[in-house]
Design goal:
Elements lengths: L8 E9 L2 E6 L3 E6 L13 E7 L2 E7 H4 L12 E9 L2 E9 L1 E9 L18 E7 L2 E6 L1 H4 L2 H16 L2
Parallel strand pairs: 2-10, 5-7
Antiparallel strand pairs: 1-2, 1-8, 3-6, 4-5, 6-7, 9-10
């Protein structure tokens, strides 16, 4: 009997931040919206770009570039917000990730994603599910449940709660 979990296909949304291409599991993606209407929030974590009214719910918007510690290479405005939902220690959170551009949807066999032990000097390897070459590009697969620690989820949720209480 063949082990089908090794050949399991996953659907991923790929996107570009600066000169790098990332992908996240499409099950985590709620919607991709234009980078408009983000209100800055003073005195919060550096990687929090602000808050956004998303379908009547206030969500924190994260600079994926700052959170992932990607050095800036170009001055192009970040054009999209990828709204994702993830769970950390049974707490479900929604955030927006600012990216330059959505590249597309990929059907990837899970066993083709190679583990990454050390990845340059600026990524936290815990954030990464792995990487693989697709055509002429290396795509880095993110593990969204690992990008934010439990403490960071509290900071993200506190940011939106503070703005609600000011109304």
């Amino acid at each position: 009997m063949e082990n089908t979990s090794r050949n399991k296909e996953g659907i991923y949304l790929s996107f570009r931040i600066e000169n790098e291409i990332f992908a996240i599991n499409a099950e985590n993606v709620i919607e991709v919206v234009r980078n408009e209407g983000v209100a800055p929030v003073p005195k919060t974590a550096e990687y929090i770009a602000g808050i956004l009214n998303f379908r009547g719910d206030i969500i924190s918007v994260i600079s994926a570039q700052k959170k992932l510690n990607i050095p800036p290479h170009q001055d192009a405005p970040k054009k999209v917000i990828i709204v994702i939902e993830f769970e950390v220690n049974k707490n479900v959170s929604k955030v927006g990730l600012i990216a330059d551009k959505v590249m597309g949807v990929l059907n990837i066999q899970e066993n083709k994603i190679q583990p990454v032990l050390e990845f340059g000097n600026y990524y936290n390897p815990e954030y990464l599910k792995g990487a693989m070459k697709v055509k002429d590009s290396i795509i880095t697969f993110l593990n969204v449940e690992k990008i934010f620690s439990e403490d960071e989820v509290h900071v993200i949720n506190d940011t939106k709660e503070k703005t609600k209480s000011k109304k």
